[in-house]
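Let's practice the habit of predicting before peeking. Look at the sequence and jot down your guess about where helices and strands might fall. Then scroll down.
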Amino acid sequence: MTNMWNENIFSSLRIVQQNNGLDLVTVVSGTETDRMYWQEHFNKTSRDVFRRDGTTSTISISEITRKGNFLGTINAWNLTKQAILKDGGNFPSISLMSMVFGEGKRLSPFTQALGNRKPAFPTPMWGAYSKTYLRMADLSNLYNNILTNHLEQSGFQGYVVKWGDEAIIPGLKWNAKKNEYFGVDAIRSVFKTDVTPDLAREKDWVLTDTRTGLMRFQYSRQDINSLKQRISELGEGSYDFGVNLGSLALSYDFLEIAAHVLQDDVADPRKWVDWDPYVWIALFCRDKSEWEAELSYEDRCGKTGIRDLEARYPDFYIKISKVRAALEAKTGRSFTVRVLDFGDILWTDYGLHLSLRKSLDLLTTDFVEGRVSRELFGIANVRDQKGNIIIRSSIPEDADIQRSVIVDTIIKDPSTIIHEGVIVGGRHKHLFMPFGGSALFCAADTMKFIGMHGVAFRSIGSEITILDGGRHTSLFFPEIIENMVSNETILDYSGKNYYAPVLGNHLSFEEAGKLMAKMDGKDIESRWLTTWQNWLL
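Done guessing? Here is the structure:
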């Protein structure tokens, strides 16, 4: 497994180096400010992420009103098509749509520090050409290169739609077969595994016909007993199941038909809907009676998903069935969705506090996942006599630093203690981390981690303390620096946890988000960078 993950990482990097990456990328965000931010950002990092020669064309667009990622995909197709036709160009055989939405409530207050851009979270990976740390959206797209390359070699023509806050490394090698995906309407990404209580509750499941490799249905996340009951109702047949990985590929024909059928819905500011699970469920319900059976099933289970959807989108199933019928009329065949198995995946997700912390903790270990995670971020797997991996850093010779990863960091005080810590882009006089933890792009005279599992991000100050499981960051307002904290024990970022100050913060996470939204992303970055650069001078 280690070799296969590493091979796929190196293959993605090699695609960039050999200029075999994408010709066209559409970046989709939610505001005009974000549109400009991401356009400038991807222009800067394109040579690290897509093609070394810098020839990838990036079109950044924003949604005026909330669409959800399904109608948002169709809206983005319309806007991209207008831009392409205006310039007299054509679509390449395969393109990428990078969805960089996300206020990141569940990553508060880190996303507030980034101007409410969760996919903009910087990683430990240095971009050789952009001369900056690549963001999570960059990594998501960089390691998606093997997927887009595989689909193109297999004859697929369309868009790959990818979420911007996660990087997924497949655990197997795909062998491209000429025209294997030619004429396919869509492709779903899954990893096939046993149904467990946690996965049944937290993930959607894709049903595949093993004889053909075609998708047959999608089941929404639910209790394991109800999911097993649904599976038992299938009867005899050659089926298997995979956890939905979110990203998908859509043919240009599918997008063109959907844009025509749903043009009024895309323009309607009151309508929004996501792909998962109900668009796919509707696409695979052969008639209204099967859709109503799904509604009845949800009623019995006490779920309200379909009823909530139909309250804001009353003719939803009728419209989706029209998309399918029009597509089948154009292609002269049945709606066809292939399922692509990713095998045992390495999933790096910076969208939640717990997954972020676990991803960072892995960097200090020599488990299989730890070694591969360092490769993912371009961190050498070479340790010194104390078990440390130290890159481009200056640390006191007598400091008690053991089994840690330190990148682009200055530490002054020889009484510093760091055991199994991760420090990236740090400017510190004294660090106290005897129980591990992570300090990312921080500058402090004294920073203490009291307990395990703490993470500090862009924290700046004279004396900073991070409690057990704590989170700490600094918000750079025009006149002041406001420190904010959270803790990974907070799992619900709704209600009072979000709308009222918690853990001694002066602001609620909602208030902080609204204030940061008023500021230009470049100004936020500039204020942080200036303060950080001058800290130890």
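How did you do? The chain has a mean pLDDT of 94.
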